[in-house]
């Protein structure tokens, strides 16, 4: 067993020091994860910029309007001079600019009409139209609030109530209305939420573990090519010890990739509880072990790198398709029956079950048993199929 | 030299209809450097593979140090070291790591492996390059590492399969000196080469194989005596006389 561990440590060390292998194995999960994050957790709402010319820079209400626009999550404010705005519009750098007139605050304060102008090229563009509607909405709200405050002051003018008291009370009411409006508007995302991560992550994990089959399948061919295979078999190392070492190394490689992916999913998507995370890692380990022995079977029958790679690719693709990795196979179909021969079927089922709230390992005992059986049987099959040289050990 | 350390008796090995080895018998005394020569396809590699337990003979047996390769190959593997013709190294590992790894495979613990690895690297004049990656080494350095690995575990029988192919005279001489030192230290060596002057210099006895059989077996002097005055003929003359001048590849 010591010699098997020495082989496993050597292989894992080589894997971790080979930049190409490392980039493929470790950065790829991170890249895939970044894509998932972009697709499922990134910005799904409008995000735009309000380009504003403020001709009333010292006005209370013009500043208030700009502050409110800037406070919106989906909007940034870009203040321009009139000259800059005209030049940018002329060059079509911008399609819509909001102009606040110099009498904006003074007119609003006394309840007289004032006018915000949108300077635009054509229809102002899609973003411009959305920004314009937001500016319009904020300006309307500000106008209503100012008018409401003015009317309250007017109504209470005869009472012995101080201006400060009125201002505080009105602002308090308006603030509450802003925080808890009578009509709440919410947005529901259709077709892009984290439940898709829940659906896709098991398939992506399965894919990465299956990649390790290719690496495992080439390990003996590489020993053969380097000439080290025969040399190893003239030492005290037994063939079973060598296979155990390769098996442990393959399992570690597959598990490392999965561990990275799952950890990122845990940290960012909050798909797991600490308990379910531990359970999913356990299933990933058993799955990696099963994949490792399948790689060893391919390694045992392959004589060249090309053979090993092609058999692995073919096997991986068949496993992915039959295992319903990225699409569901309807029950009762022939494909569904054949799919039971794919280890993906069991790993994906286990991963999906364990990400459901309240799931425990016992819920996936069948899946774990099948994967563990594949690992054990696969190990012995690979050992039986192996021949160092034709007609030899 | 009086104890027989290796005894091959009537070895046969066929691949499909091709008889690669066809009734080979020989013995090697303890502490002897025994040469196995022959043109390509003569059956040398198959013979060595049977002796080193990679292939099981179809018929016949070999005892090495009293252990049968057929019945007790594990015991045989404990006392042999193999330096293959190919550079059987891990190019992404350092010289030291290569030796340490094969040392562990030869049954040494970590401390023993390190001590032997450093000693063998020193023997090969590579102690300063112990931490260098093997793929950065010259051909001669790789050959010396290849031999150093075979010595890990202090084997009693060393198989040297063309250990000097494609290297410069300096490295070749160092390997000769090492082999002579090992012989003087009592190690038994089975040596194959295509360089006849090497066999003449290093081997106490030489077997010439052709067509899966041993066609001649004697001391270099005895072999040369077969075709003329030993001082006037070379081992290559004997070789060509016995195996013919026709191409084998």
Question: What does this protein look like?
Answer:
The complex is a heterodimer of chains A (393) and B (249). The model of chain A has no long low-confidence stretch (mean pLDDT 83). Chain A has a four-stranded mixed β-sheet. In chain A, helix 2 packs antiparallel against helix 8 (194-226) and helix 2 runs parallel beside helix 10. By secondary structure, chain A is mostly helical. Chain A has two domains: 2-41 and 193-385, no CATH class; 48-179, D-Maltodextrin-Binding Protein, domain 2 (3-Layer(aba) Sandwich), CATH 3.40.190. Chain A is elongated. Chain A is 68% helix and 6% strand. Chain A contains 15 helices and four strands. Helices cover 35% and strands 25% of the residues of chain B. Chain B has 249 residues and is an alpha/beta fold. Chain B has a domain at 1-79 and 202-249: Rossmann fold, CATH 3.40.50. Chain B has a six-stranded mixed β-sheet with strand order 6-7-8-3-9-10, with helices on both faces. In chain B, strands 2-1-4-5 form a four-stranded antiparallel β-sheet. The termini of chain B are far apart. Chain B contains nine helices and ten strands. In chain B, a hairpin with a 2-residue loop joins strand 4 (59-64) and strand 5 (67-68). Chain B has helices at 44-51, 73-77, 95-105, 110-123, 139-150, 169-184, 196-202, 220-225, 235-243, and strands spanning 4-15, 18-29, 33-37, 59-64, 67-68, 80-83, 157-161, 188-192, 205-210, 213-218. The longest helix of chain B has 16 residues, at 169-184.
């Amino acid at each position: 067993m010591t010699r098997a561990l020495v082989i496993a440590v050597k292989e894992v060390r080589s894997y971790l020091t080979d930049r190409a292998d490392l980039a493929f194995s470790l950065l790829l999960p991170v890249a895939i994860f970044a894509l998932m994050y972009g697709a499922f957790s990134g910005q799904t709402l409008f995000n735009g910029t309000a380009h504003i010319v403020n001709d009333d820079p010292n006005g209370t209400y013009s500043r208030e309007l700009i502050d409110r626009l800037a406070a919106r999550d989906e909007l940034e404010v870009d203040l321009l001079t009139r000259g800059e705005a005209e030049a940018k519009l002329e060059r079509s750098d911008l399609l819509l600019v909001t102009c606040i007139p110099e009498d904006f605050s003074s007119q609003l304060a006394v309840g007289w009409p004032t006018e915000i102008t949108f300077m635009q090229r054509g229809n102002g563009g899609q973003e411009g139209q959305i920004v314009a509607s937001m500016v319009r909405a904020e300006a309307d709200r500000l106008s209503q609030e100012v008018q409401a405050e003015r009317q309250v002051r007017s109504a209470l003018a005869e009472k012995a109530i101080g201006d400060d008291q009125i201002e505080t009370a009105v602002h308090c009411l308006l603030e509450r209305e802003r925080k808890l409006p009578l009509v709440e508007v919410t947005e529901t995302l259709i077709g892009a939420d984290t439940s898709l991560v829940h659906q896709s992550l098991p398939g992506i994990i399965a894919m990465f573990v299956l990649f390790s089959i290719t690496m495992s399948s080439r390990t003996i061919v590489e020993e053969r090519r380097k000439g080290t295979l025969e040399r190893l078999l003239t030492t005290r190392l037994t063939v079973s010890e060598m296979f155990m070492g390769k098996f442990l190394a393959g399992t570690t490689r597959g598990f490392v990739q999965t561990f990275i992916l799952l950890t990122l999913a845990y940290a960012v998507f909050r798909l797991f509880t600490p308990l379910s995370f531990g359970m999913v890692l356990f299933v990933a380990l058993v799955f990696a072990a099963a994949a490792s022995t399948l790689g060893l079977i391919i390694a045992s029958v392959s004589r060249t790198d090309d053979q090993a790679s092609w058999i692995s690719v073919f096997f991986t693709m068949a496993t992915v398709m039959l295992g319903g990795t990225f699409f569901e196979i309807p029950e009762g179909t022939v494909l569904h029956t054949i799919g039971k021969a794919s280890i993906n079927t069991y790993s994906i089922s286990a991963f999906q079950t364990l990400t459901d709230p309240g799931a425990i390992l016992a819920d996936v005992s069948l899946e774990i048993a099948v994967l563990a059986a594949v690992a054990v049987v696969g190990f012995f099959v690979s050992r039986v199929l192996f021949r160092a040289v034709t007609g030899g050990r | 030299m009086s104890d027989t350390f290796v005894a091959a008796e009537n070895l046969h090995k066929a691949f499909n209809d091709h008889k690669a080895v066809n009734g080979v018998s020989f013995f090697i005394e303890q502490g002897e450097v025994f040469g196995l020569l022959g043109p390509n396809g003569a059956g040398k590699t198959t013979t060595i593979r049977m002796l080193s337990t990679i292939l099981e003979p179809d018929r016949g047996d070999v005892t090495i140090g009293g252990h049968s390769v057929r019945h007790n190959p594990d015991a045989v593997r404990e006392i042999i070291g193999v330096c293959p013709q190919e550079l059987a190294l891990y190019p992404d590992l350092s010289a030291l790591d290569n030796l340490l790894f094969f040392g562990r495979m030869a049954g040494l613990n970590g401390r023993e492996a390190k001590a032997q690895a450093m000693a063998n690297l020193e023997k090969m004049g590579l102690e300063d390059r112990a931490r260098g990656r093997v793929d950065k080494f010259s051909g001669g350095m790789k050959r010396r590492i290849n031999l150093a690995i075979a010595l890990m575990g202090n084997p009693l029988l060393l198989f040297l399969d063309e250990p000097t192919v494609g290297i410069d005279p300096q490295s070749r001489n160092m390997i000769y000196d090492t082999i002579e030192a090992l012989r003087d230290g009592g190690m038994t060596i089975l040596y194959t080469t295509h360089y006849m002057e090497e066999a003449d210099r290093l081997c106490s006895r030489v077997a010439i194989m052709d067509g899966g059989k041993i066609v001649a077996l004697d001391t270099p002097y005895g072999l040369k005596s077969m075709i003329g005055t030993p001082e006037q003929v070379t081992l290559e003359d004997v070789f060509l006389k016995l195996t013919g001048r026709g191409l084998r590849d």
